[in-house]
Each structure stands twice: as structure tokens, then as C-alpha cells.
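From the methods appendix. Each design record in this collection lists the discretized structure first, followed by the designed amino acid sequence. Records were kept in a plain field format so they could be parsed without special tools. The example shown here is representative of the layout used throughout.

RECORD:
C-ALPHA CELLS (140 positions):
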């Protein structure tokens, strides 16, 4: 108590002194400024009014609909957990990688997919050349 009593008393004295100083400066302020501040405070005393708040929406889901949606989400989560539990554990990651790589490489790739950018540009250029109309026939 001896160690903490003095700092607490000093803090209380400083707080009271600060309040007194603030009150003194507020009272000694310009009367026109004080009247303006009082006018602003009085103008906004009635706010907020209940009429200013938006009304409760009626287009939201009912509590029963929310409950049903939550139950459906929980059921979906439980089904997903069950499917994940049924998956075999991966002990050999390199073996799994090799297996997946072999299955992907076994699928034939379309020749269009294997074309390079230059080949595609040349193909488009050839199509544009072929699409040009022939020269007009001269009339006599």
C-alpha cells in the first residue's frame, strides 16, 4: 500500500487538476463561440430518431429455412468427411506421382493442342490468303 498509494494519489490529483483547468478554459472561452457550440449540440440532441432507421426487411429467409439450410450443409460436410475417410492413405508420394503421370501420358493429345504459336499464326495466315476473293473479271 505504501508503494502504490503515492502514485495513485498523484494520478488522481493530476486528473482533478486537468479537469479543473479544462473547465476554466471552457468557461473563459469566447461567448460567441460557446453559444455556437451550444447551438450545434442542441440541434443534434434529438438524433437518432427511430424514424431514421430502416424498417426490418421481410424478404429474408425464415428461421425454419435457415435451420434447414444449416442441416443440409452439415449433412454435406458429414458426407464429405466420410468420403475423405474412405480414401486410401498416401504412404508413397513418388509412387503416386509416377502412377498419375503414367495415366495422364496414356491419354492421347489432340494435334491441335501440340501446335506451337508460330504454327498457329502460319495456319491463320494461310486461311486468310485462301479467303481472299479472286480478281474481278474485266468487262468489255
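DESIGN:
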Amino acid at each position: 500500500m505504501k508503494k502504490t498509494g503515492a502514485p495513485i494519489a498523484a494520478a488522481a490529483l493530476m486528473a482533478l487538476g486537468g479537469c479543473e483547468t479544462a473547465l476554466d478554459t471552457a468557461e473563459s472561452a469566447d461567448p460567441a463561440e460557446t453559444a455556437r457550440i451550444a447551438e450545434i449540440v442542441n440541434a443534434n440532441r434529438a438524433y437518432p430518431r427511430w424514424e431514421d432507421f430502416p424498417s426490418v426487411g421481410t424478404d429474408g429467409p425464415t428461421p425454419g429455412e435457415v435451420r434447414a439450410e444449416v442441416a443440409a450443409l452439415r449433412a454435406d460436410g458429414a458426407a464429405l468427411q466420410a468420403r475423405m475417410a474412405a480414401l486410401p492413405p498416401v504412404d508413397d508420394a513418388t509412387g503416386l506421382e509416377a502412377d498419375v503421370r503414367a495415366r495422364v501420358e496414356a491419354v492421347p493429345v489432340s494435334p491441335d493442342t501440340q501446335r506451337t504459336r508460330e504454327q498457329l499464326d502460319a495456319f491463320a495466315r494461310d486461311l486468310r490468303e485462301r479467303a481472299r476473293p479472286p480478281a474481278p473479271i474485266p468487262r468489255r
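APPENDIX NOTE: The helical segments are 2-27, 31-43, 63-86, 93-106, 111-114, 117-130.
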